[in-house]
Amino acid sequence: MNRDRRGSSLAELLVALVIAGIIGAALTRLVIFQARFVATQDGMMRARSGARAALNVMTNEFRMVSDNGLLAADRDSVTLRVPYAFGVACQQSAGTTVVSLLPADSASYGSAAISGYAWRDSLGTYNFVEPATVASAGLGSCSGATPAITTLSAPGWSATAVAVAPNVVATPVGAVVYLFQNVRYAFALSVELPGRRALWRTVLSTGVREELVAPFDTSASFQFLVGSSLAVQQSAPADLGTVRGLRVKLVAASEAPPEGRTAPVKFDLTTNLLFRNNAQ
After folding, report:
1. Which of 56, 108, 119 is nearest to 85 (CA)?
2. What is the pLDDT of residue 222?
3. Whole-angstrom Cα distance, residue 70 to residue 80?
4. How far is 67 from 130, CA to CA, in rounded Å?
5. Where are the domains of the chain?
6. Which residue, of 10, 68, 73, 198, has the fewest CB within 10 Å?
C-alpha cells in the first residue's frame, strides 16, 4: 500500500531558521537600543536634577547680596556676605545694639551663624561690623525706644529682639540693620564620588563645609556680569565692586556612563543671578 508522506524539506527548514534568526537579531537589537535609550535618559534626568538642586540652593542666597557683598571670587569659587535677618535698631545697651527683627524664615534663621552685621546711616550707606556676636535680648528690650518700636511676630515666627556686639559706632535708633553670614560656594573634588567634582557650601564663621551636589563636569564654573551693561567676563575683575551678578554654569553629569557609552551624560544649566553689590 502506498502512502503519501508530506512534510518540510531541509531547504524549507533552513529558510525558516534564517528568517527566525533575522527576526531574533532584530528584536535583540531593539531591546538593546531601548535599554541604552532608557539608561541615557535616566542619566540625563539625574544630571538635570543635580543641576537644578544646586541652583535652588544658590538662588535664595545670591539674590540677597547687598552693598559690598561680593568678598572674593574666581572661576571656581565665590565668597559672599549673605543677609539672613533684617530689623530696626531700637536702643543701645552695655556696649551692644538691640535690634528688633522682622519676621523671617525660622529654619534659615535657626541654621545661620553670624559673621557680622550692617547698619544703614542717614546717607543710605551701610556700615559693616565684622566679626560680631548675637545674643537673645528679650521682647522687653525695645519697650523703651523713642519713637516706640514694636517687635513683630508672624505664623511660624515668634517676636524676636537680639543684641549684637560690638557696638563700634553708636547705631542710631530706627536705623535699618541686617545680620549676615559669610558663605563660600566652590567647585572642588567630591568626597562622595572620589575623582569627580562637587559643589560645596562653606559657612566661614563656623568652618562647616557641606557637599551639596555631585558630580559636575570640569566646565562648571562662575562667570561675572560686570557694569551696567552686564558684560560677561570669564575671570573676576580686579574691582569686585563692579560685579552686578554671576553667570552660573552648572554643567552636571551622571555618576557613571550609561550602558553603551564611554562618558557620563552631561546637562548644562546656565543662568544669570543678579544682585545689588554696589549697584547705583
Report:
1. 108
2. 97
3. 5
4. 15
5. 42-74+183-274, 79-181
6. 10
